[in-house]
Write a structure and sequence with these properties.
Length: about 120
Amino acid sequence: QLVESGGGSVQAGGSLRLSCAASGSTYSRACMGWFRQAPGKERERVARLDTVDRSAYYADSVKGRFTISQDNAKDTLYLQMSSLKPEDTAMYYCAADPRPCHEIDPTNAYIHWGQGTQVTVS
């Protein structure tokens, strides 16, 4: 189970930190990611982290502004978002999969998804 939190409304240039609390075996979330979907737009992969080899990926639109991380206990995934822009406004979702990220990357077919947390930048 994945539960996101930390969303909210913020002015452009501000920061937010999203959290994704995970339950269940750590083996079920070898690859974890953050996605977002704005109204009328397709879902976009924002960032992902391979929890085994620690490799990270960022969408070009968020590079240098967002940072994905995981706590030592591997129970929470974070997305630190800085220099937020109105175009970052979307519902943000956490996802996890037991397969390594290099197998997931071509399709983004994550097995586990959270319910989402809304981020609004004005």
